[in-house]
């Protein structure tokens, strides 16, 4: 390495295993902030895992400079040995930046860009209406209702499938497969990602046993991908789910006639990949929002006041009101910032060696954007743990250095293609909940408020740890509105 620029600074590591020993197994994003303060130079750090170079970016400025401006070099993904090679996940999320990437990315963006994604609004609205009714009927199960809302929304948008009860067999298969995949570790950062040869070791070998389990998941996943696409075909034949992504893809395949080659396979994988991408993230966002409202009731009160003024009490909030509700807009932004649900995004990869600020970024380095660090940087967002929507107000009160939506969906050519869709669905869910439900802490035997702790799971998509609170319908007017909301959609001939 003589004569070449030095690597960015970082903590001292061990021979062979690199920084594995000093990287606390949980909440890597917090460890990286600590390391950044101690070793970082303008927040860019170098570490290695079993010799694999890793660059950590704790600041949005560097993430934008590298992952966006120099996007041609930084839009690849690390190899993802476990998820891609062993489990066989072939959707867009983990696809390398070559071959089919461009075509596949276009196939998603075509339907999820700001204009096209408006077609999913009726489906999103129906699911929010169902969520509100579930909250009305059994508010104590709110965590499950939110999970089900996210799952139903994505099953409907992906396959045109309408889940009607808790025993839905398709929902069960898709949920189980995705749960097994997501419990298997951080993408690109499991043991077999660092020691790829492990996958060929016998199961008795330490660390290799998991491989057998992973091969079983592969079979399950294959079946899930195929069966759900067949379901989508049947739905289409019956005239259901015309707005779904599968239905649009089947239209494209029809135009290609018999000679669509690998296109159908790609489409199947892509449809399957939007489910996990959209469920855990949206669920975590709404659950975080509920937790925040328990802790910051003055925010909920101010948002409701604005809603009452603009929307009134004789209808539910709708997207047409959005422009007239600036405070609610800040609540949404603050919620994205307070718990950026994919705290470390999804890793990128440097395809060629690069030099940044006089430091060398090795070819093949995994590049991690620490989104949590960016949205909890005290100099960008004073009192970062306080939920303070007014920090986005224009004028003197403004003390947010950037819009969190510019960070929480990732960067550059890999930036989340589902962001417009997610933003619209989350807005509606939050607006309707705030307008019609009171959220407050549970009470102990003596009538004292018991505030739930603010803790998030230490995994890839960070959800609040299970907590309790009281959700009650605001009054009879609200209860009637919520009931009518769903009736109106059904009577209005809503077609999923
Ligand atoms: C709160 C909601 C969501 C958040 C915070 C979120 C966040 C992210 C992030 C951080 C990435 C990685 C970007 C990067 O590599 O720099 C990503 C990728 C992705 N997201 Fe989302 N997402 C959300 C919802 C959705 C939804 C609803 C969908 C589907 C409709 C979706 C589909 C995807 C896909 C397909 C990718 C992979 C893109 C690629 O690799 O080119 N996401 N998302």
From TrEMBL:
Pathway membership, UniProt: Secondary metabolite biosynthesis
Residues involved in heme binding: 416
Species assigned in the record: Rickenella mellea
Cofactor annotation: heme
CDD domains on file: CYP64-like
Protein family: Belongs to the cytochrome P450 family.
Domain of life: Eukaryota
Gene3D superfamilies on file: Cytochrome P450
SUPFAM superfamilies per UniProt: Cytochrome P450
Alphabetized InterPro entries for the sequence: Cyt_P450, Cyt_P450_CS, Cyt_P450_E_grp-I, Cyt_P450_sf, Cytochrome_P450_fung
The protein, known as: Cytochrome P450
UniProt cross-references to Pfam families, sorted A to Z: p450 (PF00067)
Keywords from the UniProt entry: Heme, Iron, Metal-binding, Monooxygenase, Oxidoreductase, Signal
Gene Ontology MF terms in the entry: heme binding; iron ion binding; monooxygenase activity; oxidoreductase activity, acting on paired donors, with incorporation or reduction of molecular oxygen
């Amino acid at each position: 390495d003589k004569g070449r620029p030095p690597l960015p600074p970082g903590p001292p590591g061990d021979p062979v295993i690199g920084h594995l020993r000093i990287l606390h197994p949980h909440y890597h994003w917090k460890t990286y902030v600590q390391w950044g303060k101690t070793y970082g130079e303008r927040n860019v750090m170098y570490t290695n895992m079993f010799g694999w170079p890793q660059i950590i970016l704790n600041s949005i400025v560097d993430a934008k400079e590298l992952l966006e401006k120099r996007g041609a070099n930084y839009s690849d993904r690390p190899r993802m040995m476990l998820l891609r090679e062993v489990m066989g996940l072939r959707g867009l999320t983990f696809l390398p930046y070559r071959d089919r990437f461009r075509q596949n990315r276009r196939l998603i963006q075509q339907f999820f860009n700001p204009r096209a994604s408006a077609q999913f609004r009726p489906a999103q609205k129906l699911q929010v209406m169902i969520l509100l009714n579930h909250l009305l009927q059994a508010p104590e199960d709110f965590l499950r209702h939110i999970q089900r809302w996210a799952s139903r929304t994505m099953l409907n948008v992906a396959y045109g499938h309408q889940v009607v009860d808790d025993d839905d067999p398709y929902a069960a298969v898709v949920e189980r497969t995705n749960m097994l995949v997501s419990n298997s570790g951080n993408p690109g950062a499991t043991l077999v990602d660092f020691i790829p040869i492990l996958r060929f070791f016998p199961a008795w070998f330490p660390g290799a046993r998991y491989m057998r389990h992973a091969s079983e998941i592969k079979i399950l996943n294959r079946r899930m991908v195929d069966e759900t696409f067949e379901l989508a075909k049947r739905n289409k034949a019956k005239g259901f789910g015309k707005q779904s992504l599968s239905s649009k893809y089947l239209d494209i395949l029809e135009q290609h006639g018999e000679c669509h080659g690998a296109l159908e396979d790609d489409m199947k994988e892509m449809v399957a990949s939007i489910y996990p991408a959209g469920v855990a993230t949206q669920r975590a966002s709404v659950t975080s929002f509920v937790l925040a409202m328990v802790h910051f009731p003055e925010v909920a009160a101010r948002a409701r006041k604005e809603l009452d003024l603009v929307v009134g009490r004789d209808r539910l909030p709708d997207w047409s009101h959005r422009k007239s509700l600036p405070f609610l807009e800040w609540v949404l932004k603050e919620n994205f910032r307070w718990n950026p649900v994919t705290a470390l995004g999804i890793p990128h990869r440097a395809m060629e060696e690069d030099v940044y600020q006089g430091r060398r970024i090795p070819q093949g380095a995994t590049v991690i954007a620490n989104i949590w660090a960016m949205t909890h940087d005290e100099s960008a967002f004073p009192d970062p743990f306080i939920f303070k929507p007014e920090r986005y107000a224009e004028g003197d009160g403004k003390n947010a250095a950037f819009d969190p939506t510019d960070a929480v969906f990732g960067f550059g050519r890999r930036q989340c293609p589902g962001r417009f869709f997610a933003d619209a669905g989350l807005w509606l869910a939050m607006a309707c909940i705030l307008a019609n439900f009171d959220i407050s802490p549970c009470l102990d035997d003596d009538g004292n408020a018991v505030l739930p702790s603010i803790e998030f799971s230490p995994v890839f998509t960070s959800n609040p740890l299970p907590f309790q609170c009281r959700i009650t319908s605001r009054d009879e007017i609200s209860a009637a509105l919520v009931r009518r909301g769903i009736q109106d959609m059904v009577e209005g001939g809503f077609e999923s």
